[in-house]
Request: fold
Amino acid sequence: MLIKEILSSKDSDAIRQLMASIIMDIHENGAIDIQQLEKLSYIKSFHQTLFAEQENELLYVLGLFYKTKDPESFFEACYQVYADVIKNETQENFTPIQADILEHIKKHKFFSFSAPTSVGKSYLFRYLITNAKNDVVVVVPSRALITEYILEITRVVDKDVLVLQFIDDINKTNTNRRIFVVTPERARELFKLKNRFNIELFLFDEAQIAEEYMRGMLFDALVRRINTHFPDSKKIFAHPFIENPEAQFIKHNINTDTGKFLYNQQSVGKIYMSLKDDKLSYFSPFESEKLFDKIPETSDIIYEKLKTDGTTLLVYISKENIYNGSCLEKFKKYIELCPKIIDADALKIIEEFRDFIGAEENAPSVMIDMMKRGIVIHHGSIPLYGRLLIEKFVKLGFAKICFATSTLIQGINMPFDMVWIDKFQFNGSETDKVIGLKNLIGRAGRTSLNQSFDYGYVIIPDSHIKSFSERLKKIAKLNEESELNKKVETIEEDLQDVVEAIQKDTFNDEYMMPEIQIERMKNADIDADIQYILDNLLSNNLPLKWQ
Reply:
């Protein structure tokens, strides 16, 4: 049944049969067909009563055991047995995917996997970190993710566990073990102190950073050096929407005790809408391009949803439109729906943000005034601590609307009910663009704790339907050859020494430099230059042109 038919159908039995067939398909193959989840979203939206009849059964086959009610059929009872086994083994309400990832990690020293944003990876990683007996290193691509991880980890670990965002050997008397959350750049300090730690586990989150040229080589170099200096530690690589997670092993010639898996299963549905001349229409990336002539929505569903309590909207927009304030005018009618916040905890965060940016209490501040109505702005030029407060504000459910740039698609866990892609532009290679788009729309539809199937809305400009649909269906693959494997002379000149040092294992950990560069410095005849600096630049006897 096409989506157009779902929307217009008056045949209750046909809708029941469609939903039953989708549930059986998920039971047999897993929730790997996102078009099926799209249809479920439409059934729930347009046939709520019929959907409710089979919703509990759907939650069971999706493996969302933390959402299910008591079994109401033999079929559901069988899944409950499955859930009970997982609970007995892990003492957690894990989904089958989470349990499977955990089993792979137990079996293998190296495990690389790819999974959608809704798989619950963050919850699983917290479990691994909490239950580790020795030191853990988490490598993430950005400082923003460092902060997010540290906040979550410190909330769940014991008081004698030291959580640090730099590699350091401190507070040893009161510390049972350490958890380091670092970027690849900061992780290099690890090798200076490698004999002081007992590292049980390395978690490489958002490991698709390996696709970036400069940082990718740094990441690959880090992986190789960790394999050399910490051979007994487990290494886990996690990626979103990557078709070949085994690339992490192929490029580094890791071929023993490895496991890899591609998880395509998803648990959150999407409804797609296009916008043209302020009019919204439904469309599907998986049916014909025109899709039932993009059935128009008679009312502004964004407006209607935002009028209800709890609905949230993320607007992906250019920094220019944030700076010049045009976003406030363009989205004025939605902003006007946001009442002033009275929650004491929300107001406390707002005041902390005010103090951070130095805004006086009675002085006009657009950001503060917006925040008081649950409207936040998130972009890379806001200092890290400011972004942290904004993210905390969002996660606690105080934000109604968020205007954000590309900083939000770099792994930061901030889901919304609706995602409006106002700026249809993504940076990097085609692989980067595919991952960026999928990461962004993955924010649409929050995985709630409610006993219900969750879905979200994605809104795009009508002119981008074709390119959006094509990119959504594209496969993203990691390069299976590292830049470090190439001949040194083909590498950029500034990086040749570093690459050669990694290849030959001649990197000096004390000075954080290749040995060849240290030798050059030793042999350099710079005594006369140093003497000139000491005699002139670091004294009062500066030449006239320097005065």
Observations:
- The two ends are 81 Å apart (CA to CA).
- The longest strand covers residues 269-276.
- DSSP finds 23 helices and 16 strands in the chain.
